[in-house]
Amino acid sequence: MNKFKALVQLQVRSYGLNKLRHQSRGKFIGVLVGVVLLVMMAISYLLGIAFLLIDMGLASYVPSLMFFLSSAICLVITFMKGSRFLFGFNDFDILMSLPLTPRIIIAGKLLGLYLLNLLFSLLAIVPAMMLYCWHVQELVPLLGAVLLVPFVPLLPLLLGLVLTTVISLIASNFRYQQLVVVLLSLGAVIALLAGSFSLTGYDSAEMNQLLRSAMAQMERFYPLAEVINKGFSGQPLLLLLFIIISVVPMFLFVVILDRYYLSIHALLTVRVKKGHFKLETFRQRSVFSSLLMKELRLCFSSSLYVTNSVIGAILFLAAAISLPFVQGQLSAILPPGSSIEQYVAWLPYIPCLFLGITTTTSAAISMEGKNYWQYASLPIPVGKIYQAKLMVNLLLFFPPLWIGCTVLSIAFVSTAFSVFLLFLLPTCFCLFMCIVSLKLNQLYPNFKWVNEQQVIKQSLPVLLTMLLGLVTTVIAAGSAFLINNSAIAVLGTSIILLALSITAWRSLQKRNAFVE
């Protein structure tokens, strides 16, 4: 039992809690404020959804929708963790050399991830259920929800681990394994997004009917939502059925995994060389080209790094391609007397919402890990190294950004000047986020990470990048609202972003993060 407890503690501390405890007071307060703001925004968003359902007379759907959203959040978290959470992690050899059985390692890993998902489930369900109980003037639904919350993450955890493991097993038979994992992961995200857009194909213009149709689609897509709905509507025995359906598959998964764990780990980690030796002449490249190729290889060596970094650009591209096909639904939810043309001026701010989620540069310096000494010893100006890291981000972000803006301009924009503004602001915003994120990583590098998740998803530069992207977009849109002239607002914001980018770039070149 002590071994299992120690392993779970180590797993929980790997989420950044141990490092946060030893940060300076200023950094600790900054991280704490950022986390509180993110939690408040998430809870406010979910409470807004619950309040909308209550206001539209659909209060009975609040429990099932909150449980569905909580399951979706847990599934995304588990999926983004990747198969390396259970298989192929860096300290596998160390753990296996200790007097620990595979069963203890599996249980410790699963419990650590389960606790993380449980935290998000509590935040997603409890506040909304408190609002629901206030509406129905009963306390029993809240008690029932609290009893069910520990079982909510089980099925999403199981499904996410199975999906990532299957994707990795498929990719292990190919030469470019990580590239296959990236493509399959992005394909799964796009398929999920396409499925969510398909749920909006309603003919009625009334919001109430739209919501009722959406709830019916949700229950067909996620049958357990209907079980939850009926369980909180007078059939409490169905809640016991929900617990059984959640516990039994997870128990069977753990039993099967305990038996075949080492075999699956071997399939995922064994590398088979299928190439043939050929005597060739080495090609000579310029310094920048060599650095760029090195950065690209580093980027695509981790499927988690790529998917977590470009998810915003991919989501924007998918949304931009989908919007022209749902113009009827967009017109239906607009206020009476208004049209889509009245909102075209706000189009340049839509890409910014997506591009501010993540960047590759927020972890580009830290991803060097123990190999940072190579850049410290090479006679290369640090500016060229930073340029290569910036170029990787721009190569991954600019193509989907410009393709999406082209689709939006064809579908919604009628003047050449408006098209120019639609491209100008997101491009400047992307450049700004790219450079400033690299500056944040320069200020707070981490070369001593054990698991790449620590710098890709849990580091301070990543958190600050998300906050910066959101705050910058809100300020830009707010200034446009105050100025009441979209063209001047877009031009002014773009100039300011370019000036800040130049300032940040000059500051970057004054410090070598690999030496200092």
Describe the structure.
It is built from 21 helices and no strands. By secondary structure, it is mostly helical. Helix 1 (2-21) crosses helix 5. Residues 195-206 have low confidence and may be disordered.
Summarize the SSE layout with pairings.
Blueprint lengths: L1 H20 L3 H31 L6 H20 L10 H6 L4 H35 L3 H9 L5 H18 L5 H22 L8 H15 L1 H9 L5 H33 L17 H14 L2 H20 L4 H7 L15 H7 L16 H6 L4 H31 L3 H28 L9 H4 L3 H24 L2 H23 L8
Helix pairs in contact: 1-5, 2-5, 2-20, 3-5, 3-7, 3-10, 5-6, 5-11, 7-8, 7-11, 8-13, 9-10, 10-11, 12-17, 13-15, 13-17, 15-18, 15-20, 17-18, 18-20, 18-21, 20-21
- Roughly what is the average pLDDT, rounded to an integer? 78
Largest β sheet strand count, sense and barrel closure: none
Strand content: under 5%
Query: Cα distance, first to last residue?
Result: 43 Å
Helix content: over 70%
User: What would you report as the Rg, rounded to the nearest angstrom?
Assistant: 25 Å
Count of separate DSSP helical elements? 21
| Mass-distribution shape | globular
